[in-house]
Write a structure and sequence with these properties.
By secondary structure, the protein is of the alpha+beta class. The chain contains 7 helices and 11 strands. The protein has a 5-stranded mixed sheet, sandwiched between helices. The two termini are about 30 Å apart. The structure holds a DNA duplex (16 and 16 nucleotides).
DNA sequence: ATACCTCCCTGTGGGC
DNA sequence: TGCCCACAGGGAGGTA
């Protein structure tokens, strides 16, 4: 489920695959992922354009070109893939000029580049998709409701963002208008590391707790970003979400499972239970 | 204004 | 065996 580290990984895919390359062909295989633009409009806007330096903002990926900017959001099941044009054709029956890897059922939009590489936006569930921004004001309008980015936010700005929030800490951290980039798994992971109960009121954190939260958030993101995902390691809380009878990897206490803001929430009643 | 609820999307797995 | 439903969760939109 793409969160900040995943999208950072997709940014690297886009950068290495497409930066400096011209879009030769845009193939929309499912218009259901397009927002505010049709297949024809997307094609006309992007074919012949050259990809520039991509950018990530929260969970959004900005594919800048020398013209419009394509905005990608990956929802829960989205991916960005890059085909290697030098990979051997798939199977003995493949035509000589066939793409190395045929489109799969969930490949919704394909971008063929002038060097033969091909980008694929793949998404099983189509919860989000692709937007097109013709200029900076389009871009600002689409991203207007985002809070500061979780990867770069300073401690004081984080404190300020939480200071007025009466809601629960967990749901506040995943509210993109408060802080951009954290999803359900990261929020649980960070709160567990910071030893903070997810149902604390966001604005009630002490200065010491805010420092802890900020430090643990940074450390967690620093580990997850290079991996391009929230690593499901045994030493991480995330590594135990789906265990049948999960226990805390730190203290062995059975983990508690609740629902917060409609999302599954996992936390340790011992590590995160005291001191509030 | 803030906080919470329902729905969208699709595939999977459990229960009967 | 096959059907039905809950569930996964990012975010929009509506309501309290």
């Amino acid at each position: 489920m793409p969160e900040l580290p995943d999208v950072e990984g997709f940014r690297r895919v886009l950068e290495s695959c497409a930066r400096g390359r011209v879009v030769r062909r845009v193939e929309v295989r499912d218009t259901g992922v397009l927002h505010g633009v049709g297949a024809r409009g997307l094609r006309d806007a992007l074919e012949g354009r050259r990809f520039a330096e991509p950018e990530r903002r929260g969970k959004w990926l900005l594919a800048r070109t020398d013209g419009p900017t394509l905005l990608l959001h990956f929802g829960m099941t989205g991916l960005l893939l890059c085909d290697d044009p030098d990979a051997p054709a798939a199977g003995p029956d493949a035509a000589p000029d066939a793409p190395a890897t045929p489109p799969q059922a969930h490949d919704r939009v394909l971008f063929t580049l002038d060097d033969g590489h091909r980008l694929r936006y793949r998404d099983q569930r189509k919860l989000r998709g692709l937007w097109l921004a013709h200029d900076e004001s389009d871009l600002d309008r689409l991203l207007a409701r985002q809070g500061p980015d979780a990867l770069t936010v300073g401690r004081d700005d984080l404190a300020a963002a939480l200071a007025t929030r009466r809601g629960r800490l967990k749901t506040t951290l995943t509210d993109q208008s408060v802080l951009a980039g954290l999803g359900n798994l990261l929020a649980d992971e960070i709160l567990w590391r910071a030893r903070l109960r997810p149902d604390r009121r966001a604005r009630d954190l002490t200065p010491a707790e805010l420092r802890r939260l900020h430090a643990r958030m940074r450390a967690t993101l620093r580990s997850a970003v290079p991996a391009g995902r929230v690593p499901p390691r045994a030493s991480w809380l995330t590594g135990h979400r789906d265990d049948p009878d999960p226990v805390c990897p730190r203290c062995g206490t059975p983990l508690r499972r609740t629902r917060m803001g409609g999302r599954g929430t996992v936390w340790c009643p011992r590590c995160q239970g005291d001191g509030d």
